[in-house]
Amino acid sequence: AVVSTQSTGTTVTLLTTYNNGGLQAMYKGEWHDVPSLLGSILMMSGSLMHELTDGQLPPLRHRVIDIKRDRFSLPFFLNPSFHSDISKTWTSGKETETGRSFKTFGPWQVTQLHRDEPLLLNSTSLF
User: H or E element: which one contains 75?
Assistant: First the structure.
């Protein structure tokens, strides 16, 4: 059973899985098991990084499958500062799709967190 399927919405996610399997990544339209090696770190680029680099770094579509036991992992989200301009790409300076609604990273991230983790933030998170 699939627990969740997603593309990371942020810029870069570093993930250690502590030798726990269950992570799969989409490659050329097919799901593949991601090797889980103790002591390793997986780097995933997200949809915002894809935009900011004019599509040079594709977002990793991934999912977690039920491995019939507890599964632990530790993500680290590497993101721009709250006030960083995300309205234009880093390479060509073209307007990003995200930039049509958000000029800076912070308000965009808060909106994403409200969508993805509704219990994490409250209605005054932007203030």
Answer: strand 74-78
